[in-house]
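Support case: user asked for a sample of complex input and structure output to validate their parser. Sending the pair below.
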Amino acid sequence: MNGHSLSVGAAPMCNTENSPQTEHTWHYEGAEKLLEVWWKPVNKPEVDLRNIKREKLVKLLDKIKCEIVSETRTEDQVAYVLSESSMFLSERRFILKTCGKTTLLFAMEDILKLAREIGFEDVEDIFYSRKNFLRPELQVGPHKNFEDEVSVLDKIFPNGAAYVLGRMNGDCWYLYTLDVALSVQEPDQTLEILMSDLDRDVMAQFYKTDCTTAEEVSELIFGSDETDVTRTAAVKTPNKTGISDLLPELKIDAVLFDPCGYSMNGLLPNGGYVTIHVTPEPEFSYVSFESNVSRVS
Amino acid sequence: MNGHSLSVGAAPMCNTENSPQTEHTWHYEGAEKLLEVWWKPVNKPEVDLRNIKREKLVKLLDKIKCEIVSETRTEDQVAYVLSESSMFLSERRFILKTCGKTTLLFAMEDILKLAREIGFEDVEDIFYSRKNFLRPELQVGPHKNFEDEVSVLDKIFPNGAAYVLGRMNGDCWYLYTLDVALSVQEPDQTLEILMSDLDRDVMAQFYKTDCTTAEEVSELIFGSDETDVTRTAAVKTPNKTGISDLLPELKIDAVLFDPCGYSMNGLLPNGGYVTIHVTPEPEFSYVSFESNVSRVS
């Protein structure tokens, strides 16, 4: 995902000439840093993360080098498409997912502070996770390696547990969570599918020059269950047996970035969400799908 | 384990005054770096790791800061108690286990070279593993962190896979092995039990001032299956229902270091081995048990 090419700010990502990198080739790190924090229930209507003022969120995001691009609200949550991925706030759950060279963990203390200001004292659990980066040396702050990220979190949480799943010198998944006997009590799980090195032709559909609107791209994704569908055919005759049939209540907020890249937040009742981010450039193509929806087709 | 206090060389470990550390307190890292390398069978009698000349092994060990203390041979293997743990050589399996501030991976290229000199070309598999260190910052060379160790090995082996099992910011076990479809074909497994923060009274038995000889300490370990046995009682009336009954063919080579610490190699037919190392100092007590014996009691 990739607001990095957005008009709201950061450097164009399909243009190597204006690259701020000192390296010879432009690189965009699609793999997201993902933070999910749950606070212990307070059960007072005013104690609700959605009461955090937007200007405070803007300031928070500015610190870690990203911006709000779009906002969607449902009865029980508010979702933001960011210049670099997504943010979801519900009563006591805060999800922040940022890619590129954002410095997500610089926001950790501020997030706890904002939550305290509206009445949340005790963190119930946190989950900080990410896939290994393609170019970790280009990251900023503690994000160059997981050990430094763990050090930042260990200073805040005395009972954090850090794990590496998979091959450390290949594809792996890093996770930091709290070592608590009784964690989040609500039935909750998150499915993440992280894909890299994707098909060029499929990725070509996520360039603004190919698709006029984010809606067309969303139709492309959700309107068909054909895996080898071409853009033209899909846009012309969207197959309505896709995700919109499986999740008819899904409220979609999608952004197609210029010149390329796609971000989508989908909201469902009772805190359910789906979020998809596409970095289409062939040199570092990346797609993530994340959802807490337990329904299976 | 702990030849670090041995007369053969390194600094006394129960004496903080002569500590070479810049830190205020003396520390000895009992947790071993463990390397096991298998070469593909050549099936010529002269192509046998046991044909590596002892002076070459001495030179190899000198490079990584340890020395041979004792040697035992059986029909199919030769075992060395080292000033810092153990080394086992059989026809095509090389095991090197070193603790303290030894720089085991500095020997990796030399081990491959020595094996090539006697006719082994192709490595079948390697296993480099260790527990997390208590004081990684006191280690030397690439051993300060697993990522650096992996970098060293990745330069030698194009198909290495690195894993972290357990909690990265707590107790964990690091492993580097080759990603090979068909690895070692012989039935083979290694059991390791690594213990730290041990009972002071039990550890007191591994001080030379308490036990006169390594044999007495070995009796203490193997001569009884009582867990709360006291040294005096055990030495006086060794209970012969211990490991020596379970493994009657075990050929033991044990060393009690001065002023404290214990190392034992036990050899069995067909490449079987047991090795135990004890670092008894209460501040950083550590015991390791390792064996490839598949028999269960």
